[in-house]
Design goal:
The protein is an all-alpha fold. 64% of the residues lie in helices and 0% in strands. Protoporphyrin IX containing FE binds next to helix 3, helix 4, helix 6, helix 7 and helix 8.
Length: 138
Amino acid sequence: MNETPFGFMDTSYKAAGGIEGIAKLVEQFYLYMDSEPYASSLRAMHSEDLTIAKERLTWFISGWLGGPKLYHENIGNINIPNFHRQFPVTEVEANAWHECMTKAINDQPYTEEFKAYLIKQFRFPVDMVVKASNINNN
Ligand code: HEM
């Protein structure tokens, strides 16, 4: 039983509670980023007002989980590693990002199976961002 059904069509989007569920997840994620001491350098890279960041991360995750491609519809294409090259992302910020997201996921009313799946899935873009960051390649 290594296969999970979550990568198929919009099963993940639905398991996350659709757009409202994703908005709650993102809200919680930024609350952790705002308050956890280990996330202070990550928080410092962000704008003081997180309204736009929250909206855009919600839009991105919607499409990423197989739901409506709201980021694409509202903003256009985004390549996550390329977008983040402008920030000096080290393992510290990448691990903080993943830890805040893990905590936020664990706070949601998702099944244990979906939580574990999602936590693992977020590791891929997180690792791509830190590998692409210019601070690690110059
Ligand atoms: C690995 C560590 C990461 C760091 C340090 C980081 C940092 C940032 C920063 C500083 C911003 C700009 C926010 C602002 O201006 O207030 C941002 C925006 C964003 N990030 Fe990340 N991020 C990381 C990982 C990720 C991952 C894994 C995803 C997707 C799964 C993601 C998706 C986004 C999106 C969609 C935006 C908004 C883009 C826009 O402004 O159009 N980030 N990130």
